[in-house]
């Protein structure tokens, strides 16, 4: 439904009236045939019809468009009275500002916010009513901290209320302690699983290092054995060399002694060749 035309000051252009409710347009929409309607009015019409209510041309919801801008401007400049004029409000403002004014209007009828209070009053009287409302909440005058909501609560037992409050606090504390305990146990289980996993990884690495160390020790022992064998071979070669040198010296002495005795013989080269081969053998070793 649109705005009641009786609330407007002066004449209202016919083009700014809804073709269905005949009041001033509210949330206006326009058909392709340029007839204008309130949004709620035309949507309600199209539930049961498929044409324009003015000229009966074919019309669907998807055909509706916003009002022309110049018409929206004319609509927004219309002067309208506050809906609370019957309660004493004398405000007259433009249509585009009326919603903002009516939200904060001092003459707007309100209900008391305290539970159980049926009173209704103008917004301007809100504070004065809340100050004397029998249903307002306030603290116990004896200082127990209990919030009194109604007049019957004035007879409450402070000790009982404090005991109830203490039990509630104790139950809440126990619940929080239990939640903290479960959370800590969950964290400890997670840390324990993590440490076990790390330990298994480290154990695997230690075993691998042990295996590598065993292979290295075997290689070292093989190298030491090979070195000992080489030393033995060298010692044997050195011994053979000394024996050959002694043999050579003996042959040289024998040759010189025979030469001195004047014995002339053709040299026999075969023993010398054998000797040379024997001398080369220690060097190769």
TrEMBL record:
PROSITE patterns: ZF_RING_1, ZF_RING_2, ZF_SIAH, ZF_TRAF
All copies of domain TRAF-type, residue ranges: 101-144
Origin: domain of life: Eukaryota
Coiled coil: 163-261
GO biological process: regulation of canonical NF-kappaB signal transduction
Gene Ontology MF annotations: zinc ion binding
UniProt entry tagged with the keyword Metal-binding: yes
Zinc fingers typed TRAF-type, residue spans: 101-144
Record InterPro entries: Znf_RING (IPR001841), Znf_RING/FYVE/PHD (IPR013083), Znf_RING_CS (IPR017907), Znf_SIAH (IPR013010), Znf_TRAF (IPR001293)
Keyword annotations of the record: Coiled coil, Metal-binding, Zinc, Zinc-finger
All copies of domain RING-type, residue ranges: 18-56
SIAH-type domain residues: 77-135
Protein name as it appears in the record: Uncharacterized protein
